[in-house]
Amino acid sequence: MTQPEKQLTEKESLDLIAKMINKAKDACHDTGISAMMWGSLIAICALVRLSELQFDYRLPFDIYLLTFVAVIPQIYFSIKAKKKRKVKTYDDAFMDSLWMGFGITIFLMIFITNALFNAMEGYKDPAGHTAVITMYEFISPLFLLLYGMPTFVTGVSMKFKPMIFGGILCWVCCLIAIYTPVKVDLLLTAFSAVFAWLIPGIIMEKDYRNAKLELAVANV
Amino acid sequence: MQQENFSPEQSLQLIQSMISKTKQDMSDNSIYFLVWGWLTFFACTGQFVLKNIFQYEKHYLVWTVIIIGIVFSIYQGRKEGKTKKVKTYIDDSIKHLWTGMAVSFFVLGMILTKLGWGTSIFPFFIMLYGLGTFVSGSIIRFRPLIIGGILAWALAIGCIFVSYDYQMLFGAAAILVSYIIPAYLLRYRNKTANK
Prior knowledge:
The complex is a heterodimer. Chain A is mostly helical. Chain A has 9 helices and no strands. Helix content of chain A is 78%, strand content 0%. The longest helix of chain A has 38 residues, at 182-219. By secondary structure, chain B is mainly α. Chain B has helices at residues 8-22, 30-53, 66-83, 89-115, 122-139, 143-159, 164-194. Chains A and B meet through helix 1, helix 5, helix 7, helix 8 and helix 9 of A and helix 1, helix 4, helix 5 and helix 6 of B.
């Protein structure tokens, strides 16, 4: 015998929907692992480059090459996350395209700045500085500008304040870095990476683990 | 992350917005692309003509036309905010994206003010045009915008290899393929969909 179907009142229906939405929201927490990895990596790269300039030594390889190596674990995290999520929400699709676009833009920025460096070799600005040195002073601001964009948009879209502040901080540091020497620019880059990605990543990871725990308890 | 409990009213609003989304009620954002597209296209080609044909020294002044775009966007945004009752995820995402883009363009302008506007500035601008249109195209699932974004990126690369005088034309071409043409196609699609 089937159980008689219980008629829900309007309020009960809405409560049920609200409960389902909140449950779905719990299940939709993102892990902060990628943000943590990129935040710490960019901070380390900037600080190592700073130490090279400060203590006048050179590593046998360009420290920023590590960012290319980090693409491998990033692909692994993305595939893992894709397998885990049962439904691709609208926000997931938006975030995927935003960060993919950002990745391509960063690659282009590296390409464009390198090409400009090559083109400027030998030229001098009106003050007598070589154009390459002048350009070098603007590398950090250009990258900070890009770091801020997806971070801010992600923060606003996910209503996640640490990333909104992180994105704004990147832009503020970018504006400061225009007027400061390269060493300070590198410090500002490390500072921005920590506050825009590493710290928000730790908070996201903590939230994710708590949500997972709550979900496990609720399902018992 | 912010966790909120939904009131019955909020739940209904959410459901309403979800229905609008599933109905493929894609808000027509093409007007922004068209206004900004034509203004920027005019500025790029205008600067080229002023600099290379008339040898006018203050050729960059043509860029003041973007003030029209700013005034229009504020006016249109307010108008839409008043008349639209249901806001879809698409509306919100596009708004957040272009707020981020607008700040990025402003900050890039600040960098270039110090670096010098006469240097290779166009690759950076074209690169950002590409980012905005690529993500917008992905949000509204409209392929011409996605392709337009990718073409803009290709033009940003090509732009590095020409002199500043001709970079303006690359800028105009990027605007044409990533803003203007996709915007007309979007308009056409929305019109036929509404029929």
